[in-house]
Amino acid sequence: MNPIMYSKILVALENSRADESLLPHITELAKHFRSQLLLVHVADGWVARNFDQLKLAESEEMKADREYLEAAAKPLREAGLEVSIHLALGDPPNEILKAAEREQCDLIAMTTHGHRLLGDLIYGSTISEVRHKTTIPILLVRAAQR
Predict the structure, then answer these.
(1) What is the pLDDT of residues 65-79, one digit of tens each?
(2) pTM over cut 0.70
(3) Helices 60-78 and 19-33, interaxial angle, to 10°?
């Protein structure tokens, strides 16, 4: 029997339609390798970025993000997968990297949007920073065009 190639996969979710492109790929991959999934979303609004320092109450955005993660996890669990969720707060690339390291993930899955020039500077910075700062393999799935 082949050793498990990806025992734990961090799935970086945006809480956007792009996730609809990523989750089917990850579902099949996780079934094939019997991988655990860690669904991560990084809330990066003002309250999220200052939550610990200022002892703030959870914002509506953060509550909605947590509900989104639970809703995304439900059909994966129903498909027989082992799924945990993590709502991180702050800078998306740093929080994704910290979660992947802390949870000993051996694959990071993210969506890419195929932007050009200015769009790459704004939207591609998370992927760029993650890929330059990690030794963990990264799976990028192109988000479907609207």
Answers:
(1) 999 999 999 999 999
(2) yes
(3) 40
Q: Where are the domains of the chain?
A: 8-142
Q: How far is the C-alpha of 102 from the C-alpha of 66, rounded, in Å?
A: 20
Q: Strand ranges (DSSP E) for the chain?
A: 8-12, 36-43, 83-89, 107-112, 138-142
What mean pLDDT is predicted for residues 88-98? 93
Q: Which helix (H) or strand (E) holds 121?
A: helix 118-123
The CA-atom distances, in angstroms, between 102 and each of 86, 93, 98 are 12, 14, 6
Residues with Cβ within 8 Å of residue 121, at least 6 apart in sequence: none
Cβ atoms of 81 and 31 closer than 8 Å: yes
* Angle between helix 60-78 and helix 46-54 axes, rounded to 10 deg: 100
One CATH from 3.30.2020.30, 3.30.1780.10, 3.40.30.10, 3.40.50.620 for 8-142: 3.40.50.620
